């Protein structure tokens, strides 16, 4: 009798569990929630777990913890290293020439297929809070509060869904955006899954921090990148031409002191000391807020079934080549931080070094939600990588295209390919209808990323590299065909290529 009773009790418990599971399946399809945290310019060198030059000073304990609980990608890259274009690519899974945002200041057509619309149609509650920077108002979100243009750190103003006038929120932008995110999640319909994009202004210029972090690095030594005093002799004309050099930074980008009667390199060093401290301190406020978000999910019992993504719209130079800012295809600018936490699928502490691109983000989120990836998205879902099952045909090269010819910071328009070992760059030097700046001479660069990770020695003109160069050009053209980004659309580029491409 006793045995039968125990059996019955077990059967009852199993039956109850089954009933509960079915009930929750009905409630939200057992689909995971998604919290997508997008920071601005928060480059991997400024995140401790990436183990770069500032790993010790950055002190990003909460982002490191997130990485320790999920998967950290070490080779995630953007296709066009500048704010609005990367944001449009993240939403659409498409290159700039397909989503229409090539350069800053272009209006994003939100009615095209986006991750939030696909998830919204699938029954997700969707919202975006924080930096948007796509000119048009967010489209297809259930709720939004977004900064106008860049927004400001102190008492920021927001465009609020359903309100005509801007609304000022008192406080520090990073804290305010976190609170908007947690408020929305708290007040959601618990019967439906959510997709919330929490998009910080940090760590964009002017790299402001609030107490107690605004003086955190005051007395801390700041190390120098090996190629800090780059004089660009072994490189191309584009590096000589750009105004990304620290000594050329202006006060509207970042209020700073300058030395009198100093050489360019003395000035570079002097501004660097102020710049790095400000950048990393700004990142500390951001990191604290990532911690707040994670604690909130934990407290609400949402930590298990919420996929958390941490990324930034691109990387940023922190003094490498003497540069600040982004735009170039060079490593520090092109690489994005990418961390995904999803305990049901990803073993804690995973690290992945496969080539991942921001066109992959939307397809990945859509697959994680159990939906079909729209055919016009150009990226590939990296869900197999999260499951540690790399497909045999995973990409071996990334196509990159920077269109904003000379506009702000004087960076020459270029495209190129990055493989696991090399980078080939074609500075075609033409505005292609994107800017009014004049054409400049074209230039090629080739870097061996294994022997020269700092990209200091341009090998393009070396006779022993010509076979490799041809191979990379063929591979790059294949990618251009695959993404439908052929030069044929631009007669001036076709003409230039006749003399300079091969
Ligand atoms: Ca940015």
Measured distance between first and last alpha carbons: 87 Å
Corresponding CATH architecture of the largest domain: 3-Layer(aba) Sandwich
Mean pLDDT across all amino acids: 94
Structural class: alpha/beta
Describe this structure in words.
This protein is α/β, with parallel strands linked by helices. The protein folds into two domains: 32-213 and 269-390, 3-Layer(aba) Sandwich (Alkaline Phosphatase, subunit A); 399-500, 2-Layer Sandwich (Arylsulfatase, C-terminal domain), CATH 3.30.1120.10. It contains 14 helices and 15 strands. It has helices at residues 2-28, 55-58, 61-69, 83-92, 96-99, 115-121, 173-186, 237-241, 264-299, 331-334, 361-368, 383-386, 466-482, 491-500; strands at 33-39, 71-77, 125-130, 143-147, 157-160, 167-168, 194-199, 306-312, 335-341, 350-352, 356-357, 397-402, 414-419, 422-427, 443-448. Helix 3 (61-69) packs across helix 9. It is globular. Calcium ion is lined by residues 40-41, 83, 204, 313-314. The site of calcium ion has 6 residues, from loops.
């Amino acid at each position: 009798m006793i045995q039968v009773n125990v059996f019955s009790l077990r059967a009852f418990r199993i039956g109850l569990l089954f009933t509960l599971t079915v009930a929750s399946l009905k409630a939200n399809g057992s689909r995971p929630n998604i919290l997508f945290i997008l920071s601005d310019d928060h480059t991997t060198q400024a995140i401790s777990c990436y183990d770069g030059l500032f790993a010790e000073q950055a002190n990003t304990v909460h982002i490191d913890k997130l990485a320790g609980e999920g998967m950290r990608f070490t080779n995630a890259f953007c296709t066009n290293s500048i704010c609005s274009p990367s944001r449009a690519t993240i939403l659409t899974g498409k290159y700039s020439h397909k989503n229409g945002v090539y350069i800053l200041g272009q209006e994003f057509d939100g009615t095209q297929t986006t991750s939030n619309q696909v998830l919204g149609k699938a029954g997700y509650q969707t919202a975006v809070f924080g930096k948007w920077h796509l000119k048009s108002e967010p489209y297809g979100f259930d709720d939004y509060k977004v900064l106008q243009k860049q927004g400001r750190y102190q008492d920021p103003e927001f465009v609020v869904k359903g309100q005509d006038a801007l609304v000022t929120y008192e406080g520090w932008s990073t804290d305010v955006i976190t609170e908007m995110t947690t408020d929305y999640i708290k007040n959601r319909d618990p019967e439906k899954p959510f997709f919330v994009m929490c998009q910080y202004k940090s760590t964009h210029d002017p790299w402001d921090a609030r107490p107690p972090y605004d003086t955190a690095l005051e007395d801390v030594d700041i190390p120098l990148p090996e190629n800090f005093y780059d004089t660009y002799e072994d490189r191309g004309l584009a590096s000589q031409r750009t105004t990304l050099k620290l000594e050329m930074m202006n006060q509207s980008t970042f209020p700073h002191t300058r030395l009198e009667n100093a050489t360019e390199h003395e000035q570079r060093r002097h501004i660097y000391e102020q710049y790095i401290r400000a950048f990393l301190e700004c990142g500390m406020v951001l990191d604290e807020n990532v911690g707040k978000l994670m604690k909130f999910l934990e407290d609400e019992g949402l930590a298990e079934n919420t996929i958390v993504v941490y990324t930034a719209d691109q990387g940023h130079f922190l003094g490498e080549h003497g540069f600040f800012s982004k735009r170039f295809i060079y490593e520090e600018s092109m690489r994005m931080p990418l961390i995904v936490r999803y305990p049901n699928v990803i073993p804690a502490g995973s690290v992945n070094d496969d080539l991942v691109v921001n066109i992959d983000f939307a397809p990945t989120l859509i697959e994680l939600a159990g939906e079909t990836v729209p055919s016009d998205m150009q990226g590939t879902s990296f869900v197999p990588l999260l499951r540690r099952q790399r497909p045999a045909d995973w990409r071996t090269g990334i196509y990159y295209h920077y269109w904003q010819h000379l506009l702000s910071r004087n960076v020459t328009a270029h495209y190129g390919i990055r493989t696991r070992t090399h980078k080939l760059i074609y500075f075609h030097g033409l505005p292609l209808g994107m800017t009014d700046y004049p054409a400049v001479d074209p230039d090629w660069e080739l870097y061996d990323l294994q022997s020269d990770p700092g990209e200091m020695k341009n090998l393009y003109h070396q006779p022993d590299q010509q076979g490799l160069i041809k191979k990379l050009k063929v591979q790059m053209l294949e990618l251009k065909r695959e993404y439908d980004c052929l030069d044929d659309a631009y007669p001036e580029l076709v003409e230039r290529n006749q003399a300079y491409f091969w």
